[in-house]
């Protein structure tokens, strides 16, 4: 007799939505909470989840924060939790697309070019 063990990292979006003015980009957005876990299965039947981590994502610019597992558990249980800046630890900063415009030829780009791809004029 043999067992087929499996472990996979999965993500699940929790039922959480909090309108917020983003501290990273200053726009209006929503915080959503993502639970990441390792799913352990035998014969492809998920048995349990472990190594749970909770992330908060802002919808405006996609900044990711980590939050305490205990707080994440409460959100997962459907408790009414309000996240404050003190709860969030910046994990990956989102970015705002800035439109660069060439002063020489008027070429516009959102890429982070140092020189205009059209006329090689330096972009600031
Ligand atoms: Zn933002
Ligand atoms: Zn140019």
Overview of the molecule:
By secondary structure, the protein is mainly beta. The protein folds into two domains: 5-93, no CATH class; 98-124. It is built from one helix and eight strands, in the order E-E-E-E-E-H-E-E-E. It has one helix at residues 69-76; strands at 5-13, 18-21, 28-42, 45-58, 64-66, 89-92, 100-101, 108-109. Strands 1, 2, 3, 4, 5 and 6 form a six-stranded antiparallel sheet that branches. It has a two-stranded antiparallel ribbon with strand order 7-8. One zinc ion (ZN) binds next to loops.
List the helices and strands and how they pair.
Layout: E1 5-13, E2 18-21, E3 28-42, E4 45-58, E5 64-66, H1 69-76, E6 89-92, E7 100-101, E8 108-109
Instruction: Compute the number of structural domains.
Output: 2
Strand content: 35-45%
Percent in helix: under 10%
- Give the CA-based shape: elongated
Order of helical and strand elements: EEEEEHEEE
Q: What's the number of extended β-strand segments? A: 8
Radius of gyration: 21 Å
Mean pLDDT: 89
Q: Which sheet architecture does the biggest sheet show?
A: 6 strands, antiparallel
Number of helices in the DSSP assignment: 1
The kinds of small molecule bound in this structure are: zinc ion
Low-pLDDT stretches: none
For the termini, the CA-CA separation is 67 Å
Structural class: mainly beta
């Amino acid at each position: 007799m043999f067992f087929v063990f499996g472990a996979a990292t999965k993500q699940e979006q929790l039922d959480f939505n909090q309108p917020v003015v983003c501290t990273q980009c200053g726009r209006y957005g929503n915080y959503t909470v993502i639970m990441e876990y390792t799913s352990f299965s035998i014969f492809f039947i998920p048995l349990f989840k472990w190594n749970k981590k909770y992330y908060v994502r802002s919808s405006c610019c996609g900044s990711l924060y980590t939050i305490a597992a205990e707080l994440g558990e409460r959100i997962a249980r459907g408790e009414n939790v309000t996240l404050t800046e003190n709860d969030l630890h910046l994990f990956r900063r989102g970015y705002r697309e800035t439109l660069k415009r060439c002063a020489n030829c008027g070429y516009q780009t959102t890429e982070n070019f140092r020189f205009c791809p059209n006329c090689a004029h330096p972009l600031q």
